Amino acid sequence: MNKRVIVLAAGVLMSGGPVFAQGKPLYTFPFGVEGYTYRNSWPKGVAQTLDTIRMLGFTELEGGAPGAPQEFRKLCDERGISIPSIGADYNKLVQHPDSIIDQAKILGAQYVMCAWIPHSDGVLTFDNAKKAVDDFNRVGKLLSEAGLIFCYHAHGYEFQRYGEGTLLDYIIHNTDPRYVSFEMDIMWMSFGGGDPVGLMKKYGDRWKLMHLKDLRKGTPKNLTGLTGPENDVPLGQGEEDIPAILKEAKKIGIRHYFIEDESVDPTVPVPQSIHYLRSLKS
Fold first, then answer.
1. Is 117 in contact with 94 (CB distance < 8 Å)?
2. What is the spatial distance between Cα 109 and Cα 21, in angstroms, rounded to a whole number?
3. Whole-angstrom distance, CA of residue 128 vs CA of residue 14
4. CB–CB of 230/216 below 8 Å?
5. What is the pLDDT of residues 94-125, one digit of tens each?
6. Once rounded to an integer, what is the mean pLDDT over residues 236-264?
7. Lower Cβ count inside 10 Å, N or C end of the chain?
8. Closest residue by Cα to residue 189 from 175, 173, 202
9. What H or E segment, with its residue span, contains residue 46?
10. Sign of the dihedral defined by the CA atoms of residues 166, 171, 174, 179, in that order
């Protein structure tokens, strides 16, 4: 980002929007961002993108290194940005878990997150879910032995019906809680027809991480786990009940929250989301 864009983004944090209500802040955790938010910025300059992230007030980052892990860790350390969680491709995680462990160690991560179970025709099948359960239990044990926590990032397509529940229920019930935890993306949970608060009440501390994002009101929902970036809106402007979600997340002990914005240009919506979180009072 150029200086003019940075100034404009900072301005959004300091002006406009609702007047802050009286009371204690509801959001009391470090501000984190999912690296995918800046997918179009990393190729233009890693250091510059990290400067923007730090200027906005983020001190935690989720995602792998866009380049050499050692150099990326150094750049983050220089800016006071930690990397509590990294993402991992399913096939690479299953076939080469040692390489994922090495990267997590270099970056100083505690969590390894996988965000997609391979499946075809837009439909997750029981066989897909069963294989994932077996793979997650095996890999999760390896990661645990290396001092890491494995999290599956559910994506909404897991709400295919199965028995008296869904395939998400099947995955959670059949993975070993010693080795497999979960990351909740509140937008994708809602897009698939789930209730973020209800799922946290149901499964408690199986949820360890959270993606904060909002779904445009009136967006048609389905079980593909896919929708256009135009349906990802700044926090507080969509259908998610963010205050209720944050209150329940605190109850079950989630400590790391990552704003993820899938807009083509996050320059304005990300500061708006930060401003919204800062405006919430308990």
1. no
2. 35
3. 47
4. yes
5. 999 999 999 999 999 999 999 999 999 989 99
6. 97
7. C
8. 202
9. helix 46-55
10. negative
200, 207 Cβ separation under 8 angstroms: yes
CA separation, residue 22 to residues 18, 26, 74 (Å): 12, 11, 40
For residue 28, what is the DSSP state? Answer: -
Find out whether 61 and 35 touch, Cβ atoms under 8 Å. Answer: yes
Instruction: With a cut of 90, say whether residue 17 has pLDDT above it.
Output: no
What DSSP line would sit under 188-204, residue for residue?
HHHHTT--HHHHHHHHG
Residues 37 and 53: their CA atoms lie apart, in Å, by 10
Residues facing 210 on adjacent strands: 184, 257
How far is 130 from 135, CA to CA, in rounded Å? 9
Task: Give phi and psi for 49, each to the nearest 5.
Answer: -65, -40
Q: Which tokens is 68 given?
A: 């050499």
